[in-house]
Design brief:
The chain is an alpha/beta fold. 43% of the residues lie in helices and 14% in strands. It is built from seven helices and five strands. Helix 2 links the parallel strand 3 and strand 4. The radius of gyration is 15 Å and the shape is globular. The C terminus is likely disordered.
Length: 166
């Protein structure tokens, strides 16, 4: 069992965002994938939402007896309709027992934005603060991710992180 390299538990024991288990693109390793899926299962994940364009890993989720949904997103800049599809799905699935993991491939900007949007809509959290948390956890927070949520990307810099901690 191995903790994924880039993971943000947006809601403790309920919702996490991460890169594809095993790594993305050419860095993907099957042994790492197995270990990271074991981590997710141990931490209560029952549903994995993949936003990758490909169907990679879906058979591994089946073998691990995890539920999965595939919502392909070409890029964060093109993610507005997928975001609108995912928010009600998250709201519904997070009412059930167990946790939900959402991942991209190597890029994690879109999944960071999805979790931040969920926390804003469902929990009243400031999306800027959520994106800062995601970035501090190691996820990418690109200008496109900030724009998707109506956040000024320049506000997610070192000064913004320092003000959240204060």
């Amino acid at each position: 069992m191995r903790r994924p390299r880039r993971i943000w538990w947006a809601r403790n024991k309920k919702l996490c965002a991460l890169e594809r288990p095993g790594g993305g693109g050419r860095t993907h390793r099957a042994d790492r994938r197995r270990a990271e899926i074991a981590y997710l299962k141990k931490h209560g994940v029952r549903l994995v939402i993949s936003t990758t364009r490909s169907r990679h890993n879906l058979d591994a989720y089946e073998r691990a007896k995890l539920e999965w949904r595939h919502v392909p997103v070409p890029s964060c800049a093109e993610g507005e309709s997928a975001l609108e599809e995912l928010l009600p799905l998250l709201r519904r699935e997070l009412r059930r027992r167990g946790a939900v993991a959402i991942h991209g491939d190597l890029r994690t900007d879109f999944v960071a934005a999805v979790c931040a949007a969920y926390l804003h809509v469902d929990r009243g959290r400031d999306p800027r603060d959520c994106l800062i948390e995601a970035q501090e956890a190691g996820l990418d927070v690109t200008p496109e991710a900030a724009r998707l949520l109506g956040v000024d990307h320049s506000a997610i810099g070192k000064r913004a992180r320092a003000s959240v901690r204060a």
